[in-house]
Amino acid sequence: MSKNVRVRFAPSPTGPLHIGGVRTALFNYLFAKKHQGTFILRIEDTDQNRYVEGAEQYIVDSLNWCGIPFNEGPGKNEKFGPYRQSERKHLYKKYAEQLIVSGDAYYAFDTAEILDFHRKDHEEKGKTFIYNWHNRLKLSNSLSLSAKETKAKLDAGDEYVIRFKSPQDETLHLKDIIRGDIQIDTNILDDKVLFKSDGMPTYHLANIVDDHLMEISHVIRGEEWLPSLALHYQLYKAFGWKAPEFAHLPLILKPTGTGKLSKRDGDKMGFPVFPLQWEDPLTHDISRGYKEDGYFPEAMINFLAFLGWNPGTEQEIFSLDELINAFDLERVNKSGARFDPEKIKWFNHHYMQEQNDMELAEAFVAQYNQLTDIDINYAALVVGLVKERATFISDLWELSFYFFQAPKTYDKKAVQKAFNEDTPELMLELVTIIQTVNDFTVANLQTDIKAWITDKNIGFGKVMMPLRLALVGALQGPDVFEIMFMIGKIETVERIENILNTV
C-alpha cells in the first residue's frame, strides 16, 4: 500500500464502550499495524447533552485491557491534536461558512415549531417530510430569502443552522472496500444540518473536517454509518479534498441471528456486552464486563476478529501478531455476524491453557479467603493439574478444593458404584502399602500400588475408584497418584480412614 495508512476509532463518550465498538477499534488497529500505519483515538463529544462522566477514560481503559492501544489520541502523541472534538469547535464554523460561500450550503432559519408542523402535516397525508430540493425554496433559508433579508436575520441574531445543499437529479457513484460499488440517487437525500444553532457542528461536518486535518487515509466504521456515506462523499467533493477510502463493517447480531446485539440481549441471556464493568454515574447500576467475568483479553480479541472476518483457512486460534499478518479488509463479510456466547467461552478455555500457572495461581488465591495462607508454589502446581477442565479462574476452586481440604461429603451414586463388601478390607491393606512407601513420589506410589493390585489379582477399579472417592469426594479429578503426592502421606491415609468411618 503506497500511501501512509492512518485510521481512527472515533467513539462518543455517552456511556460504556459496546462490544461492537471494540470490534470496530480492533479492525482499525489490525489494518493499521498490517500496513505499518497509525491507529488514532478521537473522542467525538460534540453532543454535550449526552456526555457521560467517566466514559472517555472507560474507552481508553478498555482499549488498553484488550491490548489494542492507540498511537495518537488524547494526551498521547498529539501531532494533530486536540483529539476531543469539543476542544476543536473553533475550527468548524469557518469550514461551514466556506461551504456557504461556495454555494454548497446555506443558512436555514426555520424554527423547531415550523419544522414540526411540516412533519405532522406530511404524516397526515401519508408522506415523509424531507428538507431538500423539492421544498427548500418554500421554507425560511438563505436560498428562499434575498441576500438583504438573510443579512438582516443574521444581524438580528436570529437562530439558524447551516444545511448542506444536496444536488438534484444526480447519481452518486460511491465505493466501499467491503461492499463494492454503490449508486445513490441524490433526489432521495435530505439537506443535512452541518452546523447547529448552539454553535456546535453536527457529526457529519466535524467528522469530515477532522478526518481531513488528521490525514485519515481509511475510514473503517460500523454499518450504521453507511447511510451517511453519500453526504460525506459530497462534503469531500465540495471542499475539494481527496476522500479517504471507506469500509463499513457488518452488524454484530443477537445470538438468535436476528437484529443488532444490545445490552438487553446480554442481560437476558447472561453474558456481558461491555469489555469492562461499568457503573452508571447517575443510577449507580452495574453492567458486567468481560474482564470481571473472568475472560482473557486474548480470548476476546480472537473471538471478535471472527465476527465478520474470515482468514480463508481453517485456523481459529490466532495471536495478535498472527491476526495482524492475516487481516485483510477484503475478507470482511457484508452480512451480519452472529454473536455466540458459547464460542467466546471456547476461546477462553483455550487461552486458559496458555496462561502461566503461577499467574493463574496468584489470581486464584486472591479470589478465595480460605487460600490466603497457602504456599503460592503449591497453588501453582494444583492449577497446572486441573486447569485443563477450566474455562475461567472461578472454575478452579470446584475443580481443586480437595487439594486444600479433605472432602466433607461423598457423592452417593459414586459410593454405590465404588464400594463393595470387600472394599473396606482392601482399603485397609492399601493404607499399609502407602505407609511403607519410603520415597513418597508419584512414580513410587504408582509402582508399589500397581504391583500390590497385580499381586492380589484384582481389577484396578476395585481399588482406584474407592481411593479416588476417599481423596476427592467424587469420581473426578486428575491422576490419583498426583493427588496423593500433592496432599502427602499423612493426609492421604487420614482421608482413606475417614471414608471408611463415614460410608
How would you describe what is shown here?
There is one protein chain. Strands 3-4-7 form a 3-stranded antiparallel beta sheet. A two-stranded parallel ribbon has the order 1-2. It has 5 domains: 6-73 and 204-253, Rossmann fold; 90-195, Glutamyl-tRNA Synthetase, Domain 3 (Glutamyl-tRNA Synthetase, domain 3, Alpha-Beta Complex); 263-351, Glutamyl-trna Synthetase, Domain 2 (Glutamyl-tRNA Synthetase, domain 2); 356-400; 412-502, Arc Repressor Mutant, subunit A. With 503 residues, it is mainly alpha-helical. It has 20 helices and 13 strands.
* Tally of structural domains: 5
- Mean of residue pLDDT? 95
Shape: elongated
**What distance lies between the first and last C-alpha atoms, to the nearest angstrom?**
73 Å
Which band does the percent of strand residues land in? 5-15%
Under the CATH scheme, the architecture of the largest domain is: 3-Layer(aba) Sandwich
- What are the segments in which pLDDT stays under 50 over at least 5 consecutive residues? none
Count the DSSP helices.
20
Radius of gyration: 33 Å
Structural class: mainly alpha
β-strand number: 13
User: Tell me about the biggest sheet?
Assistant: 3 strands, antiparallel
Biggest sheet: strand arrangement:
3-4-7
The CATH class label of the largest domain is Alpha Beta
CATH H-tier superfamily of the largest domain = HUPs
The helicity comes to 40-55%
CATH topology of the largest domain, what is it called? Rossmann fold
